[in-house]
Design brief:
The structure holds 2 protein chains of 2 kinds. By secondary structure, chain A is an alpha/beta fold. Chain A is built from 15 helices and 9 strands. The chains are: A alpha/beta, B alpha+beta.
């Protein structure tokens, strides 16, 4: 209780009321697919543990869009996540140290927290020519992944690249790029998407902190709370599909009416994700709401299998 | 695009660059009352006061006391090159946190008409898909976010930039380069490049009087020192990308980047190049903010050719572009009032060749494409970070970042914070390696920069 009191005091110092905070926990609990009775427990996770769980975040072949996505999280704010909930031991983009100092921090964290840290991987791993297509500080992505991921309590692959290889794995895949799980033969939690909604990443981390285990996954390693249903089944334009009301040209009267985008190539029927419910950037929008067909970015090999994006199959 | 500049530049200054100048650990020594007084004297932030800075200091203290320094582990805290007093460090640390929250809202602007950020998804060849979002609710939502972001830029970002710069005026003579290229961005009418808000141009050998229109025909890319097959430089229309990986050998091939050249010369691209071209071409808005900044800091125009100039230019163009955005939104509202909500033009794929020249937050971006039988036959793009960080060319000419680092004073070769300042000032999109050579002992230190 003492801890809880402290926590709410700190929250109010940040200008966040207890009510706002419980609202956020309710949103997150619902996203995770847990019943309302879990809300107080979710709140407890954020009541700042004495020892924040260490996280090591690796960057391989990627564009840093997934990191950027997480930087936009408002549930909780990113500064709260990094300063009070987890301990981000290594993250090339945001850490103050560079070069040798950064690599030393990585080695020290792996040693100190061996078997206890969460490893987050952003980016694909090059496997051809012994991994020569991707190196950091003289070590290949393959070597780093084998070292760091295998000593972690769990590895979370974030984004299309770390989960299934992403754009560099698209045909003809010159570097032999693979998702990290496949590249080094480990099981990963796959937060798929390009980029994924950060709430699905945060939900997975909270699930781990709350229950001490990873969430239920589908056959592709994706958490069921986020990737259990197709975009099509949750789509606000679904009734137009049922009524045969389709957009056939962008900018048209049908587009203004918000008709179904199936004929424009929408891959919602074969894509598992919670975009229509969770939406992006604090619930602002998602591709179909902006009149653009879903391109299936949370499915394996979507660059090859879901294209052409603007043609119905 | 305007929102992209606002967002990228705020995040770069506060989260990817500030800690090169700001010692957050030293901030713990600050007196909250004096910090509040300092903040009141330099900025017009919506938060502040002794109680506020006391809370921020306590939050930092709790964080440091936890023994888990997270992203601040192994930073360069206490380094002699840090010059800010504790109060300025605390103010900057507080704004680092405020900017983290603000940027999430700035990014929301993209999502209003673009579905999500990053990777907005409402663009289609021929226009945009978001015609349904062109309604008063969405426009008001966008305007609210724009106003909050622009207020932050003018009342916090720029004052912070000037406050920090005033302690580092010596960096107005360190980290400069010679040549500058901007393709330009933000066409005000359909006429391009004539009507660009940030104009197109090239400046050679720091000659602002000799600014010229930039021509895409002058671009070639070298692969002599890159892990690609071939040795001759090629225009992007004839460009090839045939990987040929070998060992890392700085006397032969050592990079996956090609080396772009304009008329055979390396060119810096990015905010400094854009601001210099606009300034040299007499753009009023740019000249006003640049001259005021130079006067406030008491430094000459030549100080723009530096690390300080580069970091200042990034902030200043954010003001200019942010101000212009209001006019663009009003133009959209005017069109909608007249019933013009055209967002898309149907098209058919044609065979042929084409190019597109733009400036994005990091700098000049060019695309060259050849289409045959309705499909892409060759596609080459020359991106900002290859201009700035590309390797040497067939003639051994250095790229801009390499050139800029020569002569950098370094207090402690084992902790070369000063190198990071200049490298980070380019907002690089890649990791790179820097070798520091001590001219007295010829001792070579290898430094990796990420």
């Amino acid at each position: 209780m003492e801890k809880e009191k402290d926590f709410y005091q700190r929250l109010s110092e940040h200008g966040v009321s207890r009510r706002d905070f419980m609202k956020f926990c309710t949103t997150l609990t619902a996203t995770m697919g847990l019943s309302a009775t879990w809300v107080p427990k979710v709140a407890e996770v954020f009541a700042a543990p004495m020892q924040r769980p260490p996280v090591i975040w690796l960057h391989f072949a990627e564009c840093t869009g997934c990191s950027e996505g997480v930087l936009r999280t408002m549930y909780p704010w990113i500064d709260t996540l990094v300063l009070e909930i987890i301990s981000m031991e290594y993250h090339e983009t945001v850490m103050a140290a560079a070069g040798h100092q950064a690599e030393d921090a990585l080695a020290a964290a792996v040693k100190k927290y061996q078997g206890k840290y969460i490893c987050v991987v952003e980016g694909a791993v090059a496997t051809k020519y012994n991994g020569a297509y991707g190196k950091i500080g003289g070590r290949t992505f393959l070597e780093i992944a084998n070292d760091v991921c295998k000593k972690a309590a769990a590895t979370i692959a974030i984004g299309a690249c770390a989960t299934f290889g992403g754009v560099q794995a698209a045909a003809p895949n010159p570097g032999g790029y693979k998702g990290v799980g496949e590249a080094i033969g480990i099981k990963t939690v796959n937060i798929a998407g390009c980029p994924p909604n950060p709430i699905n990443f945060v939900g997975t981390v909270v699930n781990y902190l709350l229950l001490g285990k990873l969430p239920e996954l589908d056959s592709l390693g994706r958490p069921l709370f986020a990737y259990g249903k197709t975009v099509h089944d949750q789509c606000p334009r679904r009734s137009h599909f049922e009524n045969g009301e389709f957009v056939t040209e962008f900018g048209s009267e049908e587009a203004k009416l918000g008709y179904c985008l199936y004929e424009m190539g929408c891959k919602g029927p074969s894509t598992y994700n919670n975009c229509p419910i969770a939406k992006f950037n604090d619930g602002t929008s998602f591709p179909i709401e902006a009149g653009h067909p879903c391109i299936g970015c949370s499915e394996p090999d979507f660059w090859d299998k879901m294209s052409p994006f603007f043609e119905s199959t | 695009m305007g929102a992209q500049f606002q967002h990228d530049h705020i995040v770069h200054f506060y989260h990817l660059h500030a800690l090169d100048w700001v010692d957050v650990v030293n901030a713990l020594k600050a007196d909250p009352k004096k910090t509040a007084a300092l903040a009141d004297s330099v900025s017009n932030a919506p938060w502040g006061g002794a109680a506020y800075y006391k809370q921020v200091a306590q939050r930092l203290q709790t964080f440091v006391d936890s023994g888990q320094l997270g992203p601040f582990t192994n930073g360069y805290w206490g380094h002699s090159a840090y010059k800010l007093p504790p109060e300025a460090n605390l103010m900057a640390a507080a704004h680092y946190i405020e900017a983290l929250r603000l940027q999430a809202k700035t990014a929301r602007m993209h999502a209003v008409f673009g579905a999500k950020n990053p990777h907005l998804q409402s663009l289609a060849i021929g226009g945009v898909t978001c015609v349904k979002d062109l309604n008063p609710d969405r426009i008001a939502e966008f305007m609210y976010l724009w106003k909050e972001s622009q207020d932050f830029i003018e009342k916090v970002y720029i004052p912070d930039l000037l406050a920090v710069a005033s302690f580092y005026k010596d960096w107005g003579a360190i980290g400069g380069t010679s040549n500058f290229l901007a393709w330009g961005e933000f066409p005000v009418t359909d006429k391009e490049p004539d009507s660009l808000l940030m104009p197109r141009g090239v400046i050679m050998k720091r000659n602002l009087q000799g600014v010229k229109m930039a021509q895409q025909q002058q671009v070639t890319e070298h692969v002599a020192r890159s892990w690609y097959d071939g040795s001759k430089d090629r225009h992007p229309f004839k460009g090839e990308t045939k990987p040929e990986h070998g060992d890392y050998n700085t006397n032969k091939k050592y990079s996956w980047l090609k080396a772009p050249r304009y008329d055979g010369e390396p060119c810096e691209v990015g905010p400094l190049a854009r601001v210099l071209v606009a300034y040299a071409k007499g753009d009023k808005a740019t000249q006003t903010v640049v001259n005021k900044t130079l006067a406030d800091l008491g430094i000459p125009v030549t100080a723009l050719f530096s690390t300080l100039g580069r970091t200042a230019a990034r902030g200043l163009e954010t003001v200019v572009i942010g101000q212009a955005m209001e006019g663009w939104i009003n133009e959209l509202v005017g069109n909608l009032k007249k019933g013009n909500d055209k967002t898309y033009t149907p098209w058919k794929m044609k065979d042929g060749m084409g190019y597109g020249l733009n400036d994005v937050p990091r700098g000049s971006l060019g695309h060259w494409v050849q289409i045959e039988k309705g499909k892409i036959k060759n596609y080459q793009y020359v991106v900002p970070s290859t201009w700035n960080l590309g390797p040497r060319d067939a003639k051994g000419k250095m790229g801009p970042v390499e050139e800029s680092l020569i002569g950098t004073p370094i207090a402690d070769p084992k902790r070369p914070l000063e190198v990071l300042r200049t490298v980070h000032s380019f907002d690089p999109c890649i990791a790179c390696a820097v070798h520091v050579i001590d001219p007295d002992s010829n001792q070579v230190y290898k430094v990796r920069v990420t």
